[in-house]
Amino acid sequence: xxxxxxxxxxxxxxxxxxxxxxxxxxxxxxxFTGIPVVNADNVVLGTISERDFITAxxxxxxxxxxxxxxxxxxxxxGKKTLPHVVxxxxxxxxKDIMNQQVPFANPDMTLEQLAELFAVKRMNPIPVxxxxxxxxxxxxxxxxxxxxxxxxxxxxxxxxxxxxxAIDDQAKYVQLDFQSRFAYVAKARANVWLTTGVVLFVxxxxxxxxxxxxxxxFTNGSPPTPSSRLVPTP
Length: 234
Hints:
Oligomer: single chain
Number of strands: 4
Structural class: mainly alpha
Strand order of the largest sheet: 1-2
Distance between the termini: 125 Å
Shape: elongated
Low-confidence stretches: 184-188, 227-231
Number of helices: 9
Helix content: 40-55%
Largest sheet: 2 strands, antiparallel
């Protein structure tokens, strides 16, 4: 049996300009593990799998993070520095997160060769293309597991190495910027309350000293009159 006997044709794809949120929704609705990104000529430019939605350093799930950013009202003054990077994240598309280091399967490849390709490249699914990288079909790991044991597929395991993406840096910058802003606001509020507490303490302390020195200071200097006490008449 060859790859062309196993592959799925009529593949659902996305374009480079498809929004990240739309790609995530498509994978969720279709229960896909990944999807090819193709141009107008149906040439494979890259693939997107679930792991590509996770930022490399901060571990953020981009579709959820983008949704939160798009619904967030920024604190006053934040718009001076945040919008450009935030808008880049909110408007992120498939080309920003896709894996361009794509292994291609040949339709005449044997299933043993395909199993080794899965084990070495750690990609799922793998597009099947012609010599010009035009998409012919797709094969997934689950397709192979139906014919091979998982141990056979894992036998040539090589740890994956994530490629660097600009969107990872953008997400990290926004996250650190938010953290610093919120920390500054929290610190400023704490300082306000501390200052208020100190001022009130000093006022109370001074008032106490003045009262001890002259108890009549708070009664306009007038000593209490005898009539202030009610004495029953005989």
